[in-house]
Design a protein that fits this description.
Blueprint (H helix, E strand, L loop, with lengths): L2 H79 L5 H83 L3 H13 L5 E6 L7 E3 L5 E2 L1 H9 L12 E4 L2
Length: 241
């Protein structure tokens, strides 16, 4: 294997190590993002619940005002009842009082139902607050793990990045351009070995895509120190030791 392919293999190994470090970091950042997404969802639900609780409280207050007003009216009718002079007037006022009492009883039942609904909403709200607190704690723990991981790997990441930059600088721009395109296309795996599939016959495949590699390509890899790409997947080929 020539110097160019040796350098590319070294660069690939450095990229792989960097990718592992960045991949672990990315996992933790995605976990934090998921926590934030769940927090936003809980916050929206909590605000909706609070609005509904306020609406129910306003309804309860309105019903209670109506009940108080009717009770005052009933009291006035009772006073009037003691002042009537005929049985007809007495019966009419008594009927009015009974009607007001019946309506008041319905309103009190309505107020009780509204209070039960409000209590259920309040309980659901408190449960959701508990869920949100747990998610917040999980996000805090994950952020702490991420920061600890970044601190622990800072030196290694800096060394690998420096090594990667040096390895890249030593290669021609055209070679690096080919390497970067292949790496981007195949999640960082820019190189692929050429494997002989049958020890008795000259049959070779690209280990990246398992497609046939021609003998012309094999001869180029054996005789020239240059970048040769798989005609199918575009990875940079090298002969397996």
């Amino acid at each position: 294997m020539g110097g160019t392919l040796d350098a590319l293999k070294h660069l690939q190994e450095v990229e792989r190590k960097l990718g592992e470090l960045r991949g672990e970091e990315a996992v933790k950042r995605r976990q934090i993002q998921e926590c934030e997404r769940q927090l936003q969802k809980r916050d929206k639900n909590l605000e909706d619940q609070r609005s509904e609780i306020r609406r129910r409280e306003a309804e309860i207050h309105s019903v209670e005002l109506d009940v108080n007003s009717r009770e005052q009216t009933i009291q006035k009718h009772r006073i009037a009842l003691n002042q009537v002079k005929t049985n007809k007037d007495y019966a009419a006022i008594l009927t009015t009082i009974n009607t007001e009492k019946a309506d008041t009883s319905k309103l009190e039942s309505c107020a009780l139902e509204l209070m039960n609904v409000k209590d259920a909403l309040r309980a659901a709200h408190d449960e959701l607050v508990g869920e949100r607190d747990k998610i917040e704690e999980r996000r805090t723990r994950t952020e702490a793990r991420l920061n600890a991981y970044l601190e622990r790997t800072r030196s290694e990441c800096a060394e690998l990045t420096h090594e990667r930059d040096e390895a890249s600088a030593a290669l021609p721009p055209t070679v690096m351009s080919t390497f970067d395109r292949a790496a981007e296309r195949h999640d960082g795996e820019a190189l692929a070995a050429v494997r002989k599939v049958n020890p008795k016959r000259d049959e070779f495949i690209c280990a990246g895509c398992n497609m046939t590699v021609t003998l012309e390509t094999i001869n180029s890899l054996r005789t020239r120190d240059e970048v040769v790409q798989c005609s199918i997947c575009g990875r940079i080929l090298f002969l397996e030791e």
